[in-house]
Amino acid sequence: MAQSLNGKVVLITGASSGFGQETACLFARRGCKVVLAARRLDRLQDLAERIRSQGGEALAVPVDVGQREEIDLMVQTTLDVYGQIDILFNNAGFGRLDWLENLDPQRDIETQVAVNLTGLMLVTRAVLPHMLERRAGHIIHMSSGAGYIAAPLYSVYAATKFGVRAFTDALRREVAPFGVKVSGIYPGPAATEFGQHTGNNVLKRSFKAPAWTSLSAEAVARRVVRLAEHPRRAVILPWWFRPVLWADALSPALVDWFLRVAFVGRFHRPQP
Ligand code: NDP
Predict the structure, then answer these.
(1) Which of 50, 192, 73 minimizes the C-alpha distance to 122?
(2) Which of helix, strand or coil describes residue 64?
(3) Domain range for residue 222?
(4) Is the pLDDT of residue 204 over 90?
(5) Is residue 2 assigned to a domain?
(6) CATH number of 174's domain
(7) Which residues are catalytic?
(8) pTM, to two decimals
(9) Does residue 16 contact residue 27 with C-beta atoms inside 8 Å?
(10) Which residue did the predictor score with more confidence, 207 or 133?
(11) What is the mean pLDDT of the chain?
């Protein structure tokens, strides 16, 4: 049976653009009170205003998920205003994609791990005691198709998203007896601002992916809301990503060979 969303309090990190923004709009339309969190407060305030002008309820809260005190403040503010958190959509993240030797140790590696993995863990850690106490709640973690397949140029990003998958699976098993649900969502490439932050890598310079391979932010948001209504372990999308994951799981040597011949051997030119 579908869980009713009306009146639920939903905390969304990364709500200032892309998946987070679209998901906030859909949850608000379903009668949820949405708490919008990210660093760009002006964007969050505009979105909150838009939601309110359409009859919804929204609160904008600034947070850098790389800063533990800001996470604690975000969760406390949400609890002070609404008294509870029913759904956490832990979504904030970014990807810096390049050959490992080209990645900056601090900006591209440490910060990526701090935001995508440690930040996600700390947000969930801050919300969890409240859900355990109420014996209710649903935590949805944004991973990625890169949480299943580790492609060249994606080394650090994939490591964070594999980490999110492991964290999600372990936590789901830890808290299942206490009425708290934990799910992972694993989208393939999507048209959001994500691509503006990946850096100027060889893939970007040399390839233009066909439009049909790219999901829309709204399509992902619809799956997040459906996941909230029908909680399950994992959602992988789009459908054609599944055979790709199976190929990698069943025959990694074949995938290694293909990537070497078709991509890495042609484009990876380490500088001396
Ligand atoms: P966007 O760049 O559009 O959105 C990223 C969001 O994360 C923004 O709201 C941004 O807000 C927020 N964010 C980034 N860093 C921080 C931080 N330190 N603290 C708080 N918020 C932060 O990209 P998407 O919507 O595509 O990405 C959302 C999630 O989906 C990410 O985790 C990404 O890895 C994942 N994903 C994306 C895919 C894609 O192809 N687009 C595919 C699969 C997964 P602000 O800058 O205001 O802080």
Answers:
(1) 73
(2) coil
(3) 9-245
(4) no
(5) no
(6) 3.40.50.720
(7) 157
(8) 0.97
(9) no
(10) 133
(11) 96
